[in-house]
Amino acid sequence: QAVPAGSHVRLNLQTGDREAKLPDSKTGKSDTREERRRKRLGKMDVDSSSFTSQELKKALAKMKESEKAERKFPLSAFKAHEEEVKKKFRPIEQLKEEFEKLNVKMETDYEIMVKLISKFNSSVSTLDEKVAALYDLEYYVHQV
Fold first, then answer.
1. How many domains are there within the chain?
2. Residue 2 placed within a domain
3. How many CA atoms lie within 13 A of 137 on its CB side?
4. Angle at Cα 45 formed by Cα 41 and Cα 49, nearest 5°?
5. pTM, entire model
6. Quick check: helix, strand or coil at residue 49?
7. Range of the domain at 85
């Protein structure tokens, strides 16, 4: 049977019954997704399939207010933060050049995956090499 959103549902292992309990809103312990939605939207009728024009205007005004609050952060602060990040980190091209000077080749995950696939498809590779290539490929694919 369908239960209201935010209800606490459990399976009683002793009796085998499924039990549902409405959240206790007086204690404030149940902050379900539906409750958070109601708080965010205010006292609008969020359960109706259509909204009145007044409700839509209020919601739009709230959205505009929150957007204005986010915009209060000046653009110069963003640029200063960007400059700070550029000081801490170097571009990948610069890192590649420095590694080449040290005779160290830096490979991207894509390049490694291409090598592993070609090793797996190679007729010269032994069964152990193919299995190892599959394990390594699984690791890189999992990251993607």
1. 2
2. no
3. 15
4. 110
5. 0.34
6. coil
7. 54-104
